[in-house]
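Bumping my old thread because nobody answered last time. Still need a sequence for this structure:
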């Protein structure tokens, strides 16, 4: 079976969609499958997602030339500048940007269709709802290549994307199948997306990041500075929808009861300077550390090993890679009850809070900071749940079964899809979850 993973472009340096595509591609390649990546726009020269694909031997093809990417980057920078200076123009700026993106992407339809027609691919796996994905779905359908579209978040969310989703959903009837990242997200797709076929559950794949798997967390942890206290971690884009300001307000409130709390923030984004300034205003700047963007596996390990618990108060989500990383390191997680997060975080693993509510978040931070035994029990449960949900050995079988089912649409007399490979069943592959 020949698989092409398709995406408009890499959005790095921090992108859950890019991480999902690259993890699928590298693990499929490692397992001996024929897989390549098709991008509409070129990656930046220093893009670490492309570097990972190249290191794994996954071929990458781009449809547009380099100056187009530079123009897109310049356009985005200009739009962000306008939004910062004139926030009220947001709907107009976003609508204009979406129209420009659609016009530009349509120029590559014929090239994309011809590439897919000549590729001999058994299926095209298309990621994320954007203008490039719309063109790739149309092109693959016209080329006779069955399409699996994967929704990596919540359909029609955030609200600014609703007008675009109305246009995007026009191509979904061309897809052989639609996939979501978790059972809750699959049900949302069933409710909101116009696709009468199967809605699959395809979880993210993450690598075992904690190099000392099988050891206790204490044995894996590096030496901590004396008196460092209880460290809360956040790793995501420093943007409004990831909730960094909510976390900072909650952290400042929690510090009034737990002066030993510290906060480490990994990531970058448009709110980084505002976040630093707000930390000063709240009097907690000395307790906050900005560590920048981690790209390499060892940088991720180092960051996670320096934490006692992980927090992600997002306003909208799919199933965040950073939560899976934290779970792999035996960290209890406090996160918003949005998107697919409630499918990940059970009461044994951590705590769910109302989105946008710093008070309930502060209460959970205080409770976990005060009870080392509770953190340890939750951490052990988090590691077990991580291994059940996200390791390649448990995700690849249902990914390959889905591919076989989609690819069979191309065959004149398709045989029934085989059972899950190796007899391995993912918890979300049970009746009522998988293929809802």
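Sorry it took so long. Here it is:
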């Amino acid at each position: 079976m020949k698989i092409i993973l398709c995406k408009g472009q890499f959005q790095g340096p921090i992108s859950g969609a890019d991480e999902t595509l690259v993890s699928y591609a590298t693990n499929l390649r490692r397992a001996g499958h024929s897989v390549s990546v098709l991008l509409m726009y070129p990656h930046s020269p220093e893009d670490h997602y492309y570097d990972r694909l190249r290191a794994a031997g996954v071929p990458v093809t781009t449809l547009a030339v380099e100056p187009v990417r530079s123009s897109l980057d310049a356009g985005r920078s200009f739009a962000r500048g306008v939004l910062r200076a004139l926030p009220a123009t947001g709907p107009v700026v976003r609508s204009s940007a979406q129209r420009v993106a659609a016009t530009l992407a349509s120029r590559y339809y014929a090239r994309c269709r011809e590439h897919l027609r000549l590729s001999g691919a058994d299926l095209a796996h298309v990621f994320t709802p954007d203008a490039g994905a719309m063109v790739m779905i149309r092109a693959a359908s016209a080329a006779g290549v069955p399409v699996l579209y994967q929704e990596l978040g919540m359909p029609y969310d955030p609200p600014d994307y609703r007008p675009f989703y109305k246009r995007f959903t026009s191509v979904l009837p061309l897809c052989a199948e639609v996939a979501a990242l978790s059972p809750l997200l699959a049900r949302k797709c069933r409710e909101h997306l116009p696709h009468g076929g199967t809605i699959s559950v395809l979880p993210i794949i993450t690598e075992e990041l904690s190099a000392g798997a099988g050891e206790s967390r204490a044995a894996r942890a590096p030496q901590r500075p004396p008196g460092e206290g209880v460290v809360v971690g956040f790793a995501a884009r420093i943007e409004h929808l990831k909730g960094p300001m909510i976390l900072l307000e909650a952290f400042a409130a929690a510090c009034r009861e737990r002066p030993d709390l510290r906060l480490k923030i990994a990531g970058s984004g448009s709110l980084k300077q505002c976040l630093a300034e707000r930390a000063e205003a709240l009097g907690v700047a000395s307790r906050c550390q900005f560590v920048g963007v981690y790209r390499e596996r060892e940088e991720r390990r180092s960051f996670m090993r320096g934490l006692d618990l992980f927090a992600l108060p997002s306003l909208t989500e799919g199933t965040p890679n950073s939560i899976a990383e934290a779970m792999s390191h035996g960290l209890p997680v406090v996160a918003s009850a949005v998107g697919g997060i409630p499918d990940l975080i059970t009461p044994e693993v951590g705590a769910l809070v109302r989105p946008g509510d710093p008070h309930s978040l502060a209460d959970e931070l205080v409770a976990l900071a005060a009870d080392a035994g509770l953190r340890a029990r939750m951490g052990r449960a988090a590691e077990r749940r991580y291994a059940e949900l996200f390791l390649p050995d448990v995700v690849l079988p249902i990914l390959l079964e889905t591919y076989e089912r989609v690819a069979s649409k191309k065959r004149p007399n398709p045989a029934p899809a085989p059972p899950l490979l190796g007899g391995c069943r993912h918890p979300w592959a049970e009746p009522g979850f998988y293929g809802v």
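The first strand starts at residue 2 and ends at 7. Let me know if any region looks off to you.
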